[in-house]
Amino acid sequence: VLYDENNQSPYKLLVNFPNDRSFILSTIIGMILLSIVFTSIIVVAYTSALYQLIKQRKISEIKTDFINNMTHEFKTPIATINLALDAIRNPAIIDDKDKVKRYLSMIKEENKRMHAQVENVLRISKLEKNELNISKERVKLHDLVEDAITHVELIVEDRQGYIKPFLNASKTSVLANETHFTNVIVNILDNAIKYSPNAPEIEVYTENIGNNVLLKITDHGSGMSKTAVKHVFEKFYRESTGNIHNVKGHGLGLAYVKRIVDDHQGYVSVESEKGKGSTFTIKLPLIS
């Protein structure tokens, strides 16, 4: 090999790799695949952990809502029973057999309602699984409305309020389960009473529209926000109301209303404005 005065050779060594790209890729492809696999595992594990945290938080919120709502489901019958007992103890009433019988009948009915509320969660669960077979028969909607009003009228009277029925429908025969549909009306009335910070002022209307009968229950209470109107029939939905008259949420009652009305091939909706009250409307098909 010859070198010049600068000790550099005039020759150059050139090495050619005809498949250099495939050679390089073959050496690193394993490392790339392993990196992708491990990165995917990390992403999946993180996503799963985050999902579980969110799920656990939601379960915790549902449990809290469940306790609050079930407490409130018992408040109305307990309040009615207490008012009836206080009335019976009044010396001016205890000798009036008719009034005593009326209050004892109320106590019995509300006791039955409390027992029914114990089954409320099971009913909702069975409804969601389509396991609840609700037997239906021909009933008069006005009879159910009048029966439902008797369940809450004592509480309304005690708060110096009123329930005014305007039962204008001429045809009210529907195919319904008497117990469940009475509970539907009671739950809406309960809701109207709870969300009336002052004396409850409630109107109940019926009218015929085509081959349907409409039941409207209007209150002049605190009303609901637009967000609450959209979600009010969802199970465990709770609107933030602060500490206003101890109302913690809409609870199971309206979710139950929705499921029962749907099962009766009916339709339920609500119109509401914050501070101006709410109107619940139920539409049921008439039977001949």
Automatic annotation (TrEMBL):
Q: Does the keyword Mitochondrion apply?
A: no
| GO cellular component annotations of the record | plasma membrane
All copies of domain Histidine kinase, residue ranges: 69-288
Respond yes or no to whether keyword Kinase is given for this record: yes
Provide the top EC class. Answer: transferase
Tell me, what is an example of a GO biological process annotation in this record?
cellular response to phosphate starvation
In alphabetical order, the GO MF annotations are: phosphoprotein phosphatase activity; phosphorelay sensor kinase activity
Q: What is its EC number?
A: 2.7.13.3
- Record Pfam families: HATPase_c (PF02518), HisKA (PF00512)
Q: Where are the transmembrane segments?
A: 23-51
* This protein's name: histidine kinase
Q: Which organism is it from?
A: Seonamhaeicola marinus
- Taxonomic classification: Bacteria, Pseudomonadati, Bacteroidota, Flavobacteriia, Flavobacteriales
